[in-house]
Amino acid sequence: MVKDIVIVGSGGSGWMTAGMLVTENKYKITVIEPEGIPPIGVGEGTWPTMKSFLMEMDLDIDDIGGTKKLGIDYIDWYVNHSSKHNHFYHPFFDKTFTKKLDMNDIFIEYINGGLLEKKLLFEKLFPESYGETFITDSYGYHFDVDKFIPALKEKCINLGCKVINAKVEDCKFNLDGSIKSVVLDDEKEIVGDYFVDCTGFKRVLISKMKNTFIDLSDEFLCNSAITTHIDLKNEKEYYWTKCSALSSGWVWNIPLKDKIGIGYVYSDKFISDTDAKKELNEHLDIEGNYQLLQWKPGFLKEPFVKNCVAIGLSAGFIEPLEATNYQMQWIIIDRLKALLDGKIQNNNANTYVSRWFNGLAFFIISHYFFSKRNDSKFWEYFGSLKIPHDIKNIINNLFRTEDIVSFASIKNFTKKTLILPTGLSWFYLLISYGINFKKELYNK
Ligand SMILES: Cc1cc2nc3c(=O)[nH]c(=O)nc-3n(C[C@H](O)[C@H](O)[C@H](O)COP(=O)(O)OP(=O)(O)OC[C@H]3O[C@@H](n4cnc5c(N)ncnc54)[C@H](O)[C@@H]3O)c2cc1C
């Protein structure tokens, strides 16, 4: 029986894991936190699960330097010239809210062949007052990691988590291949029953276990980002992550409590870091100091191996579009809790997590496939590709139903198609790109 859990790494995933486990009141939790390897923090956007997590930890929006997030505002993704279709939203919605707005009629009209006027849909969804009244409970947060981590750490320590300031250099194994202990830079050995790898792209523990990395770099071209923060402008408060398409990727704009997080996500095969900086400077009309982050898009086939699990960036990272990583952290920790309770085994947990990563990957890549931009080699590349069969299957499944509202619930959609995110999210995506699947999709 697992009693003693060792979490290696103290970024957002390490402390989120510590928080979700320590509140169970069942385990002795130790977090290993090195000096001099700072965690990633760019101004992150999250899904509504973040709201539940903060409530569980008794933290609020001010503790994390955050703002509410109703969804994502896509700008200039449809075409590269001026068009009324060049502005659309991917909102968070629950079933009740969708019912309130009679969305079913809208969707049925769309399925029956109408190429929906996006304006009609979004005017209905976003009356001017929407942001202030928050008629939905379905929102996430934008937050500042520099505030989130200290606030969460303090809660975890108060609830009994122990912190060791050291770097993990190695680990020792039991005869069955499970981890026995981790060896620190001062040569001390920390033993445990279960080990969590939250060391980001370094994958300090999980890389020592047998595993397969599902490499998505052939499909996901974006593998770099330059990031910065700028001062809050005197513009009206907004509750969206803004994502604007540029020549070789896209820029996020994330409103935090006292600053704005900015980053240009691009493919280094199509633009150099220097040219990306130039383009971002022009886009923002500033001379920015940027931090460069790079990754290999993909995920581990088996984040759960023996008595070890990878959580956060160590489990995988596709790219920042749709802000999926804190959501994935939450999903994996939730599966870890079920595993520790003896309700599931490693193989069930791995299948579930892969299904999430795959579903999110299809969704993210669809933004690139369905865009009609052709103003650079980057966008031309996506224009030249055929829509993968898996995406066609998802869409076929969606269009086969008459009752979109009930079909779009996570449970039904997952059961029928084994694909995430929800059917509603897929509808927003298709409607926003003006996809009339009967005519357009199969020509591609
Ligand atoms: C460009 C970019 C944009 C992103 N945007 C979003 C977003 O909008 N929404 C979202 O949900 N996610 C986003 N993410 C992902 C999100 O930032 C991460 O999921 C989150 O920060 C958690 O990271 P982590 O804790 O797994 O890794 P990290 O933040 O890298 O932390 C790893 C930790 O491991 C420690 N460590 C490393 N080596 C050792 C060692 N040998 N011994 C002990 N400790 C060690 C380090 O000190 C560090 O604290 C983005 C990521 C990137 C790259």
Protein traits:
444 residues, alpha+beta, FAD/NAD(P)-binding domain, seven-stranded mixed beta sheet, 15 helices, 34% helix, disordered C terminus, binds flavin-adenine dinucleotide
Please characterize this protein's 3D structure.
The chain has 15 helices and 22 strands. By secondary structure, it is α+β, with helices and mostly antiparallel strands. Among the domains are: 4-66 and 143-216 and 298-359, FAD/NAD(P)-binding domain; 93-138 and 386-444, no CATH class. It has a 7-stranded mixed beta sheet. It is globular, with a radius of gyration of 22 Å. The protein starts with a strand and ends in a 12-residue tail after the last helix. The relative contact order is 0.16. Mean pLDDT is 86; it is low at 127-134 and 439-443. The structure holds flavin-adenine dinucleotide.
Topology:
Elements: E1 4-8, H1 12-22, E2 28-32, E3 44-45, H2 49-56, E4 67-69, E5 71-75, E6 87-91, H3 95-100, H4 103-111, H5 118-125, H6 130-133, E7 140-143, H7 145-158, E8 162-164, E9 168-173, E10 179-184, E11 189-191, E12 194-197, E13 213-215, E14 224-230, E15 240-246, E16 249-255, E17 260-266, H8 273-284, E18 291-294, E19 298-300, E20 304-305, E21 308-310, E22 316-317, H9 325-340, H10 346-370, H11 377-383, H12 389-399, H13 404-407, H14 410-417, H15 423-432
Parallel strand pairs: 1-2, 1-12, 2-8, 5-15, 12-21
Antiparallel strand pairs: 3-7, 4-7, 5-6, 9-10, 10-11, 13-19, 14-17, 14-18, 15-16, 16-17, 19-22, 20-21
Helix pairs in contact: 1-7, 1-9, 9-10
Bound molecules: flavin-adenine dinucleotide.
